[in-house]
Amino acid sequence: MKKIITVLMSLILFYSCDVLMQSLETIDSGTSQGLTQQQVAKGLKSALEVGIEKAVNVVSLTNGFYKNSEIMIPFPQEAIKVKELCESVGLGNQVTQFEEKLNRAAEEAAKGATGIFKEAITQMTISDAISILKGGDKAATLYLQRTTSDKLYQKFYPVVVSATEKIMLAKYWTPLVNKYNTVTKLTGGEQVNTDLNAYVTNKALDGLYLMVAKEELKIRKDPVARVTDILKEVFGSSLNPYNN
Questions:
Q1: pLDDT tens digits, residue range 42-51?
Q2: Pair 190, 108 in one domain
């Protein structure tokens, strides 16, 4: 009889501890709707994956950068004198073609960005996810940008190099720079030697982050944008500031 009682007490104690741990887990997650920390983390990662996929699908299309005024890559600012000189001597058409090719390089490079970004998402911890969910409009995107931009740059740069070579960007850039440098050499001006691959890489990443941020905001504010059950559950909870 004592053995039976002992076994029953052990089971009760075990069950109580298990329930207590689950309760603490829910409390630590900061939600009154019973979401666990793991669910919050899964929801945030899912949101980023959805946002990234949609953003990449948009910008990697033809004119995804070039015809989008928010992320269109302009003539390099540090070489703006090249543009001005070339336009003044009747090379405006070549300048336009060059700017188009800059954006074509970004569009081509963006096609391979999804896997790179998804790999970066795995770095997110549970505590990161909870604070991000409670954060501002761009909390998830800013976290991704802050923690992965260097690594993404290193991985993205070769993709841009390949893209610029594929569309022969140098073919459009070299004549413009040579024309400018020839003139400035005679006048004693400073020569221009812009790293186009670095420029396109930085601008392409900026554009992608901006589009991801827009998708993140949609998920936070618009229930229709929550296309999976976990997104509906997590972003529909009281942890999302837009629900309060």
A1: 888 888 888 8
A2: yes
Distance (Å, rounded) from C-alpha 99 to C-alpha 225?
Answer: 34
Residues 61, 176 share a domain: yes
What single letter denotes the amino acid at residue 191? Q
- pLDDT tens by residue, 56-86: 999 999 999 999 999 999 988 878 888 888 8
Cα 83 to Cα 106: distance, rounded to the nearest angstrom: 20
Assess contact for 194 and 79: CB atoms under 8 A. yes
**Long-range Cβ contact pairs of 227-232 (< 8 A, separation 24 or more):** 227/50, 228/46, 228/50, 230/39, 230/42, 230/43, 230/46, 231/43, 231/46, 231/47, 231/50
What digits encode the pLDDT tens for the residues 112-126? 788 877 887 887 888
Number of domain units in the chain: 2
Q: Does residue 91 share a domain with residue 23?
A: no
